[in-house]
Write a structure and sequence with these properties.
Blueprint (H helix, E strand, L loop, with lengths): L3 H29 L2 E2 L11 E2 L3 H15 L6 H21 L3 H17 L6 E4 L3 E4 L3 H19 L6 H19 L3 H21 L8 H18 L11 H6 L1 H16 L12 H7 L4 H23 L3 H22 L8 H18 L1
Antiparallel strand pairs: 1-2, 3-4
Helix pairs in contact: 1-2, 1-7, 2-7, 2-8, 3-4, 3-8, 4-5, 5-8, 5-10, 6-7, 6-8, 6-12, 7-8, 11-13, 12-13
């Protein structure tokens, strides 16, 4: 079914195209005025061009032109992506109001819905396949907008959103190959290649940021791909699989909503209390913080793959492990139990004892 040589060539095309295109995009960002200026809530200390998502978009497009994927939903996905890119560019340049950004996301989602790409059903234990009926459109809108903003919110450190989305796409790619979801495989491959090409410029210390142009585009594409593949899976708890893959950005987003609501702040107002900032505040370096989030993303991705093909009993075991990982991540970030780390302390105790014995 798959020509893996063709997929590898497409990945390389997207990689090289994005790697090369990022250079002119940096100059364009400066000319266009899409610059990220340091302020009280940001980590970087110098003015840095953003709008790097433009290079990711065109790099992925180059790979798509080579693969020429044919699917009934491909054109609506592309049109929605164009809307997302334009909205992101305007935000990177003019810092448009949240309601305007949301409008762009809703328009992009409408292309998917009008083409019939919606979350029509989920699979539940004991009940089997549950048709969502008229609620399916609302759930689809919430999923697309939610994941788009989740990737956007985690884009706070050099290479963070690029790496997390690449890990998520790789997990989705593995599952799409196993389930023979051709369109999902093609999209994952070209986006992974584009992301890796951009990461060359974006890893700490970054010379360009993807901006809302990139984070919204990646979030939108991940949401669309999940509907092409993951929600079509008939395994038990199939609706949980994409949630596990994206556990880090989803958890961070939910925590931000709860935190801002508790503080009576607007839920779309940016702050510096996201999980990556909390890890920095806990004493980890910039690169170490990003790598920690990468590791957790890889673990969640692996859990999702296992979950998808596990037995009924094993799904509960994996669910428990996922919850433990989320709690450990929260402890690392110091956002639960008043900053105490009982679970993490229990896990690291044997290593601490070994270090103490060596030092004696």
């Amino acid at each position: 079914m798959f020509n893996y040589t063709e997929l590898l060539i497409a990945l390389l095309i997207s990689f090289v195209a994005t790697l090369v295109l990022t250079y002119p995009v940096k100059r364009f960002a400066t000319w266009f005025g899409a610059l990220d200026v340091p302020n009280h809530r940001k980590i970087h200390t110098k003015i840095t061009p953003r709008i790097g998502g433009l290079a990711i978009f065109f790099g992925a497009l180059a790979g798509a032109i080579y693969l020429r994927p044919t699917h009934e939903h491909m054109m609506p996905i592309f049109l929605g992506a164009v809307v997302i890119i334009i909205t992101g560019m305007l935000d990177d340049r003019y810092d448009i109001r949240p309601v305007v950004k949301l409008s762009g996301q809703l328009i992009a989602a409408s292309f998917l819905i009008s083409s019939g790409l919606i979350i029509e059903r989920i699979t539940l234990p004991f009940l089997g396949v549950v048709e969502l009926g008229f609620v399916s459109v609302l759930i689809t809108v919430l999923w697309v907008v939610g994941i788009t903003n989740a990737i956007n919110l985690i884009d706070g450190l050099d290479g963070l959103a690029t790496g997390v989305s690449t890990i998520a796409l790789t997990s989705m790619l593995i599952m799409a190959v196993i389930d023979v979801r051709v369109a999902a495989v093609y999209l994952c491959v070209i986006l992974i290649g584009a992301n890796l090409g951009f990461l060359f410029h974006n890893f700490h210390p970054a010379t360009i940021y993807m901006g809302d142009t990139g984070s919204n585009f990646l979030g939108y594409m991940i949401a669309a791909i999940s509907m092409l593949g993951l929600f079509k899976n008939v395994a038990l708890f199939s609706f949980i699989i994409p949630v596990i893959i994206l556990a880090v950005p989803i958890f961070d987003t939910l925590f931000a909503i709860v935190r801002r609501a508790a503080n009576k702040e607007g839920i779309m107002i940016a702050d510096n209390k996201h999980i990556h900032y909390q890890l920095l505040a806990s004493g980890f370096s910039h690169r170490t913080t990003v790598l920690i989030v990468y590791v957790f993303s890889i673990l969640f991705g692996a859990m999702a793959i296992l979950f998808s093909y596990a037995s009924y009993t094993l799904t509960f075991v994996i669910t428990f492990l996922v919850l433990v990982l989320i709690h450990i991540l929260a402890e690392l970030a110091g956002i639960v139990l008043g900053g105490k780390r009982p679970v993490l302390g229990l896990i690291t105790r044997p290593f601490r004892k070994k270090r103490e014995q060596k030092s004696e």
